[in-house]
């Protein structure tokens, strides 16, 4: 292991070397940046001589790599977008996008070694972590992943992970049909990563994300398992902060903060520094709630995360495989396993913590070839297994959302997951709601019959044969004016003006947003672009917060909707819902507002949030 002295020596050599190259390239900006970095390193030598020194804390930043990446130039470097201009390339890219969910031409153009911007909070650079940390087996499973995307995942890991902590990388191929992912991948790995143990396991049968991950975990021999999706790029110094809590307490798990890159342009967008808490609604859709920590808590320290997203996390191998029994092996394809593991961690062990100074970038594909064409409701089945094992007296809250769906699903044999829960003597589901995520039932009330102000079709009063209609685009869902369907209200014309004072599409979590008159994930705030008011007297749908200044207006020529200054005589601004609760609408100011309805008298004491159950070996304060 490098000592601090030699590490610093290396920094010097590098900085001097690159100083000379950099001046003409970046000029004054680079000079400032470099001198800031050099200052930082000298800061560290001061820090190391203080209280942390005797505890063998180490600056794990790999400055050699950081400098190397700072001077890289080319498409997509520093996480920038690549925009194609050539018509042929655009056409090919579009074609491949619909087959894979990725801009393949764009990906192929970007170096496998590309740099991405350091999205950490600047203070993260200065923290020290223990010198001794457990090593990791990184498990990456894939099904028909785009070759260059997978290559970039591997290079980013090898480039930005301390070799002494990287025990191995395990690739598990879930029986892809793309032949590039067999021999060419093996050759690529042998040629490019001679100094890293990379093992490849090819499954002979499609097993889905969940069982495929377990297949990887079964052959792993590192001390800690890290699970990654195959479209992930790790950021600077991502691993030591992620391992530090696990070293101190092997019965908890950690997840990095997850930034996002676009599957079209590969542009990286950083998540907020003090990110969010994972949660779910009662239709079991994953959501983020805003982050709450006790007063005075250093926000860059790991903090409790109720529900993991699942695309990236670290967990002690023996704890996961032997104590927690991994995942439910009868979950199919994808989804529910992240809830299951989060419940296990919070109800049967010491929890899950998100680490703000550990960052990776990941993408959500809008199209996923591995999940289409599954001929049965695997997701409903997974959810039913999850609910049967974990939800105790809250099972019906989920089932009542969709009786028709759940009644006909046979969840299969639940013996094994149920006996794991019994063996671990886990707490009940109520504990999770009361102590791990007390804000959940405020955001997602258990009683689905919370009154709505108005619902059904939204008809123009100028021409009652026109209704607002939900139009699904490729990446955008917009509201348009279309002919009102008669008879049963069609799905695309059913809206609800809820107690949140939002206009929600059906029973989804998509809310009408005034900025582009499209549907975006609901914010649930009583301000901003999703805060509306329906005025029963004027029949106008106006801005909930700007004093009647702008109103939803029909454009019959273009069949669209837009916001325009309110004018009570303008009949293009008059609307009618199929159902209107006049009692509620007439009492608008006084009732139901989300904040009023749910937070009233229900103070949450964030100071009593579960404290982190580990000793900080190298203080972050
Ligand atoms: C990378 O991008 C970030 C912001 O997007 C910028 O602050 C930084 O200077 C860039 N780094 C390089 C080496 O260009
Ligand atoms: C990526 O980086 C590795 C290690 O520095 C180097 O061996 C390899 O040639 C690079 N590959 C490309 C395509 O730049
Ligand atoms: C990782 O840890 C295991 C168990 O302590 C050890 O056997 C193995 O040699 C370590 N791997 C590396 C690469 O140091
Ligand atoms: C592998 O390690 C050897 C010996 O340390 C070194 O010479 C070589 O450059 C390394 N190769 C790569 C691709 O990192
Ligand atoms: C309403 O629109 C329909 C369809 O475009 C049209 O046939 C009808 O004449 C319009 N009615 C009025 C009152 O403008
Ligand atoms: C939505 O996406 C479609 C197809 O990608 C595009 O044609 C349309 O202009 C977009 N609409 C808006 C409002 O952005
Ligand atoms: C309402 O007005 C506020 C302030 O002008 C604005 O920020 C918001 O986007 C508007 N919202 C709607 C739904 O029109
Ligand atoms: C908004 O309009 C309604 C009905 O036209 C009116 O009663 C109300 O006072 C108006 N609000 C403001 C702040 O002007
Ligand atoms: C309001 O609408 C009426 C009817 O369309 C129109 O005559 C009037 O000029 C409008 N007022 C303003 C201020 O735009
Ligand atoms: C209408 O709103 C009132 C509250 O003002 C509520 O008590 C009532 O249950 C609502 N009616 C329906 C049918 O939702």
UniProtKB/TrEMBL annotation:
InterPro entries: Glyco_trans_2-like (IPR001173), Nucleotide-diphossugar_trans (IPR029044), Ricin_B-like_lectins (IPR035992), Ricin_B_lectin (IPR000772)
BP GO terms, sorted: protein O-linked glycosylation
Keywords, alphabetical: Disulfide bond, Glycoprotein, Glycosyltransferase, Golgi apparatus, Lectin, Manganese, Membrane, Transferase, Transmembrane, Transmembrane helix
Domain of life: Eukaryota
Domain (Ricin B lectin): residue spans on this chain: 455-578
EC number, as in UniProt: 2.4.1.-
SMART domains: RICIN
Keyword Zinc: no
Any GO MF annotation of the entry: carbohydrate binding
Transmembrane segments: 20-40
Membrane topology, from the record: Single-pass type II membrane protein
Assigned GO CC terms: Golgi membrane
Pathway: Protein modification; protein glycosylation
Broad class of the protein's primary localization: Golgi
Keyword Electron transport recorded: no
One Pfam short name: Ricin_B_lectin
Family from the record: Belongs to the glycosyltransferase 2 family. GalNAc-T subfamily.
PANTHER family per record: N-ACETYLGALACTOSAMINYLTRANSFERASE (PTHR11675), N-ACETYLGALACTOSAMINYLTRANSFERASE 4-RELATED (PTHR11675:SF134)
Protein name: Polypeptide N-acetylgalactosaminyltransferase
Biological source species: Chironomus riparius
């Amino acid at each position: 292991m490098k000592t601090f002295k030699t590490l610093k020596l290396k920094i010097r050599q590098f900085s001097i070397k690159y100083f000379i190259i950099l001046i003409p390239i970046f000029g004054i900006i680079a000079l400032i940046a470099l001198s800031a970095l050099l200052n930082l390193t000298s800061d560290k030598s001061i820090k190391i001589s203080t209280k942390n020194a005797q505890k063998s804390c180490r600056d794990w930043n790999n400055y050699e790599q950081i400098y190397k990446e700072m001077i890289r130039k080319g498409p997509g470097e520093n996480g920038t977008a690549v925009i194609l201009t050539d018509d042929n390339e655009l056409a090919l890219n579009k074609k491949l996008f619909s087959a894979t969910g990725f801009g393949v031409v764009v990906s192929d153009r970007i170096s496998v070694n590309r740099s991405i911007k350091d999205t950490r909070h600047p203070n993260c650079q200065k923290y020290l972590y223990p010198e001794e940390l457990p090593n990791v087996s990184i498990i990456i499973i894939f099904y028909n992943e785009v070759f260059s995307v997978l290559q970039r995942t591997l290079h980013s890991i090898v480039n930005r992970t301390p070799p002494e902590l990287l025990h191995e990388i395990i690739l598990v191929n879930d029986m892809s049909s793309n032949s590039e992912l067999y021999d060419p991948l093996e050759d690529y790995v042998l040629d490019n990563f001679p100094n890293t143990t990379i093992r490849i396991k090819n499954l002979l049968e499609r097993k889905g994300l969940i069982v495929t991950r377990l297949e990887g975990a079964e052959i792993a021999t590192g001390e800690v398992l890290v699970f990654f999706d195959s479209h992930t790029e790790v950021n600077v110094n991502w691993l030591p902060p992620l391992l530090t809590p696990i070293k101190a307490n092997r019965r908890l798990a950690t997840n990095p903060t997850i930034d996002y890159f676009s599957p079209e342009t590969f542009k990286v967008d950083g998540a907020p520094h003090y990110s969010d808490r994972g949660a779910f609604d009662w239709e079991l859709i994953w959501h983020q709630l805003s982050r709450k920590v006790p007063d005075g808590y250093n926000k860059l320290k790991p903090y409790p995360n109720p529900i993991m997203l699942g695309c990236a996390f670290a967990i002690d191998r023996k704890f996961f495989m032997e104590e927690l029994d991994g995942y439910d092996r009868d979950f199919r394809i994808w989804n529910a396993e992240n809830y299951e593991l989060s419940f296990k961690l919070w109800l049967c062990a010491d929890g899950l913590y998100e680490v703000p100074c550990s960052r990776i970038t990941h993408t959500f594909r809008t199209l996923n070839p591995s999940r289409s064409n599954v001929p049965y409701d695997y997701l409903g089945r997974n959810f039913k297994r999850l609910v049967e094992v974990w939800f105790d007296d809250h099972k019906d809250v989920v089932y009542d959302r969709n009786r028709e769906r759940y009644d006909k699903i046979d969840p299969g044999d639940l013996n094994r997951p149920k006996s794991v829960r019994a063996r671990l003597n886990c707490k009940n589901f109520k504990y999770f709601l009361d102590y791990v995520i007390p804000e959940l039932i405020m955001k997602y009330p258990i009683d689905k019959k919370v009154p709505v102000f108005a619902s059904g079709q939204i008809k123009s009063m100028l021409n009652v044969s026109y209704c607002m209609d939900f139009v699904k685009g490729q990446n955008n869902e917009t509201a348009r004016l279309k002919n009102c369907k008669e008879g049963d209200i069609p799905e695309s014309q059913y809206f609800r003006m809820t107690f949140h004072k939002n206009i929600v599409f059906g029973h989804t979590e998509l809310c009408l947003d005034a900025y582009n008159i499209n549907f975006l994930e609901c914010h649930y705030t009583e301000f901003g672009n999703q805060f509306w008011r329906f005025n029963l007297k004027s029949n106008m749908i106006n801005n909930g917060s700007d004093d009647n200044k702008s109103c939803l207006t029909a454009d019959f020529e273009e069949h669209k909707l837009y916001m325009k200054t309110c004018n009570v005589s303008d009949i293009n601004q008059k609307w009618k819902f199929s159902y209107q609760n006049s009692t509620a609408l007439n009492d608008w100011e006084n009732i139901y507002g989300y904040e009023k309805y749910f937070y009233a008298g229900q103070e949450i004491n964030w100071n009593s949030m579960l404290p982190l159950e580990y000793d900080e070996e190298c203080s972050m304060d």
